[in-house]
Amino acid sequence: MTRCAAIETADLTFGYRRGVTVIDGLTQAIRGGEVTAITGRSGSGKSTLLYLLAGMLTPWSGSVVFDGSDLAKMDDHARSRLRAETFGFVFQDAALDPRRSVLDAVLEPTLYASQPSAKARDRALALLDLMGVDVPPESRPGEISGGQAQRVGVARALLLDPQVIFADEPTGNLDNASSEAVLGALTAAAEGGCTVIIATHDDRVVSRSTGRITVA
Fold first, then answer.
1. Are 58 and 72 in contact (CB under 8 A)?
2. Which residues are within 8 A (CB) of 77 and not within 5 positions of it... i.e. 6 or more apart?
3. Residue 75 pLDDT > 60, yes or no?
4. How far is CA 156 from CA 30, 133, 197, 212, in A?
5. Would the pTM count as exceeding 0.70?
6. Which pLDDT tens digit goes with each residue over 131-182?
7. How far is CA 108 from CA 81, 93, 131, 146, in A?
8. How far is Cα 10 from Cα 30, in angstroms, rounded to an integer?
9. Is residue 131 classed as helix, strand or coil in its secondary structure?
C-alpha cells in the first residue's frame, strides 16, 4: 500500500423513495488508513451509507469525493473500474458463488479487474492460509461453514491490495473465533495503509475502530 485514501462527503442526501430520506445532509471526512465504523439502530441506513460511499448507489444530492473525484459525477464505467481495481468488499453473507471453488472465489476480483488469475494464485493461497481457512482450496462454498466462508470473503477482498475495503456487517453471523479472524485481518489491513469502513452493530468492531459515523 503506497498511500492512505480518504473519503469525504458533503451534504450527502439519499432515500429510496421521495419523501422518505435515509441519509440526510451528511458531511463527514473519513481519514485514510484507519478503521471507521458506521453505527446506528437496525434499519437506520448503515448499509445504505456504505453503498453510497462505495459508489454503488447514487445520492439524491451532495457528494462523495474519493481521490479528488466526486463518485456521483463519474459515469457507470468509471465507477465500475474503481470498484474492480481500487475497492474491496466484504458482505454479511460472504456472497460466494456456489459454482466456484474456494480458491476461485478468492481469485474472483481478477476477473473484474481484467488481471490474469494465474499470477494471483500464490497470493490467494497465502491469504487463505493467513485467514485460517483449513479446507482444500478446491472445496465448494456449500462444503464449508459460514465462518470459513466469511474468511474466504475477506481473503477475496484483500487479494488486489485495495486502497479501501467496505465491509457490511462482516461479523454479524459469526462465532467468536471467526469474528476475531475477520476483524484482525481488517485492522491489519488498515495498519498497512488501507482505509477500512465497516457498517456494524458489533461492539467489538466499534471498540477497535479509530473513527465512527452514527446514522440516526
1. yes
2. none
3. yes
4. 23, 12, 16, 25
5. yes
6. 999 999 999 999 999 999 999 999 999 999 999 999 999 998 899 999 999 9
7. 14, 16, 17, 19
8. 12
9. coil
Q: Is 134 exposed, middle or buried (0-12, 13-18, 19+ CB in 10 A)?
A: exposed
CB 11 within 8 Å of CB 187? no
Alpha-carbon distance of 20 to 152, in angstroms, equals: 36
Q: Do strands 69-70 and 87-90 pair parallel, antiparallel, or not at all (unpaired)?
A: unpaired
Length of the chain: 216
- Nine-digit cell string for 11: 451534504
Rounded (10°) CA dihedral 88, 158, 205, 213: -30
SS3 percent helix, strand, coil of the chain, rounded to 5, is 40, 25, 35
Cβ distance 166 to 156 under 8 Å? no
Which three cell numbers mark 199?
457498517
